[in-house]
Structure formats: structure tokens, C-alpha cells
Design brief:
With 295 residues, the protein is an alpha/beta fold. 51% of the residues lie in helices and 12% in strands. It has 12 helices and 9 strands. The strands form 2 sheets. Strands 3-2-1-4-5-6 form a 6-stranded parallel sheet. A 3-stranded mixed sheet has the order 7-8-9, covered by helices on one side. It is globular and about 70 Å long. It starts with 5 loop residues before the first strand and ends in a 9-residue tail after the last helix.
Length: 295
């Protein structure tokens, strides 16, 4: 039996298109309809077999829809929900793939308050530095984690349907409060992106930028890979989660100040102690082991 009948994907970039491809590969979905602010990527998505049809608007898209995935940048969520709200039918489940959750849930309450039981916010912890429908692939979510942040009003059947959809994509699903979600990902996702963008921008604006980049090697490539990510998407994420991100940035600035102090006085043992703690934590995480709190 098909898990999802008609699926609507709003935003056929890497995340939305990969969701569609993964469900199609699993035989878990019926017709897939795309909707978005620009016709061009929707046309490419249909040509690539990601979607079966392009909706003329939300009334067309939502007619008979069983599940809607909003996979647009979080800065667009408010306008999208306002546009879809008048056409949302009872029983149609709405979920999203936004990297922040409290702002998305605020938009849900503003525009979909009459359908809270059918809304299940989510965040797939997957992605790549390439964006667009051409970058999508069905295996993107295999062995990746998806965080659900259900509303108090979300009906259990809707939560179960969204969970099952992501599991059909190969992902492991966990649940978390929106507040915890935004604090956690400010630390382990949003801050690293901010730092990578900042470092590359700093070097690129220097007079000797060609010389610097001509000598950059694997360490620079590894550290800055995520600076190749979608600027609009990350702009929206940083602004939406700025309170938690500012807390993490302040904590990191304190760490940098400590490192600067050690470096200024030539404290080799102090630097080595920091590097050793970091090495142990990073290697434990990479090996799938518990990371012990550093003393």
C-alpha cells in the first residue's frame, strides 16, 4: 500500500527534490506535484522526473493532497503559509524542512491556526554545498537524522505519517522541542557556517587574495567547504536564529580570546592542552562514540 497518495513539494531544490526522489525510489508515494515562486526550476524538476506535474497555484496544488513538504528557505515560510492557508483542506498534513523551528512555528500559528492538528514541523539533518534540483539524489537521507518538533496540537496520526515518510527515505527520526532544536543547531551547524563564510570573505577581500588562495590546500578546503552553500538560505537561517547564534558566537569569541592569550605569551603547553581536548572530542564523535565533557 502506498504510504503517501498525492505529495506536494514546495521548493524543488536539493532538499525537496531529494525527498521526492527518495520516496519514489521506495515506492512510497503516488503523484508528486511541485509548486514554487519560479517556474524555471519546476520545469527542470519535471524534466528530470522529480515531479509529475507543476501546480498553477496553491488551490490546484492542494486539491486532494495528502502531504505537503515546504522545502523553501526559512525566510519564505511566512509568505508561503499565508498563500496556502485559504486552500488547505482538512486532513492534509503539512511539514517543512526548515533549519530553524521557532520562527517557522510562529508562522504556523499566524497562518495555519485552523489546521494545527495537521502540522508537523521537521528538519532533515542533511545537505550539501551544491544546491538546486540538479544536485538532488535519492540517497541523500540514508542514515541521516531528521528532527521532528511536533506541536502540542499535532495529532498522533500526522506525526506518525511524517515520521514514516522520512524513514522511507532511509533516515533515522528523533523528536525535540523547538527551543532545544534551535539552541543545538546554532552551535553545531549555524555557527560553523557563519565562521566558514566569514573566513573566506575575509581572505577574498585582501589585496593578496590570489596569492592566498593559490596556496590553500586540503585543510582550507575541508574547513571552508560549507562556505559554498546557498547564501540566501543561510542568510535566512542566521537571521531567524540570531538570538541563539549570538550566544554561540559570544562563547566562541571567548574561546578565541583564550587562544589568543596563550599564543601571545607563547604558551605551548596551554595550546597543546586545548588541541588535545579538541582532538579527543572530534575523534570520539567521528568514531560514533560518546563525547566526554572537557574539563
Amino acid at each position: 500500500m502506498t504510504l503517501i497518495g498525492k505529495l506536494v513539494v514546495c521548493g524543488v531544490g536539493l532538499i525537496g527534490a531529494s525527498f521526492a526522489l527518495a520516496l519514489r525510489r521506495a515506492g512510497a508515494v503516488g503523484p508528486i506535484v511541485g509548486v514554487g515562486r519560479s517556474r524555471e526550476p519546476l520545469g527542470r524538476a519535471r524534466a528530470l522526473g522529480v515531479i509529475d506535474a507543476i501546480a498553477d497555484g496553491w488551490a490546484d496544488a492542494l486539491d486532494g493532497a495528502e502531504l505537503v513538504l515546504i522545502a523553501a528557505p526559512v525566510g519564505q515560510m511566512d509568505a508561503i503559509m499565508a498563500a496556502m492557508a485559504p486552500h488547505l483542506q482538512p486532513g492534509t498534513i503539512v511539514t517543512d524542512a526548515g533549519s530553524t523551528k521557532r520562527d517557522v512555528i510562529d508562522a504556523v500559528h499566524r497562518h495555519l491556526g485552523h489546521r494545527l492538528a495537521d502540522v508537523v514541523p521537521a528538519h532533515p539533518i542533511a545537505g550539501a554545498e551544491k544546491s538546486g534540483v540538479e544536485a538532488a539524489f535519492a540517497e541523500l537521507y540514508v542514515d541521516r537524522k531528521v528532527v521532528l518538533t511536533p506541536l502540542p496540537e499535532s495529532r498522533p496520526e500526522a506525526v506518525a505519517k511524517v515520521r514514516a515518510a522520512w524513514e522511507a527515505c532511509g533516515a533515522g527520526v528523533v523528536e525535540m522541542s523547538p527551543q532545544d532544536h534551535d539552541r543545538v543547531f546554532a552551535a553545531v551547524s549555524h555557527l560553523p557556517h557563519l565562521l566558514a563564510f566569514g573566513l573566506v570573505d575575509d581572505l577574498a577581500r585582501r589585496p593578496n587574495a590570489p596569492l592566498l588562495f593559490s596556496h590553500a590546500a586540503s585543510g582550507f578546503r575541508d574547513f571552508t567547504r560549507i562556505a559554498g552553500s546557498h547564501p540566501e538560505m543561510w542568510r535566512d537561517i542566521c537571521v531567524a536564529n540570531r538570538a541563539a547564534l549570538l550566544d554561540e558566537l559570544d562563547a566562541y569569541l571567548a574561546e578565541l580570546a583564550q587562544l589568543r592569550g596563550l599564543l601571545a605569551v607563547g604558551d605551548g603547553p596551554g595550546l597543546e592542552a586545548v588541541f588535545e581536548r579538541a582532538r579527543r572530542a572530534r575523534n570520539a564523535w567521528a568514531d560514533g562514540l560518546p563525547v566526554q565533557t572537557a574539563e
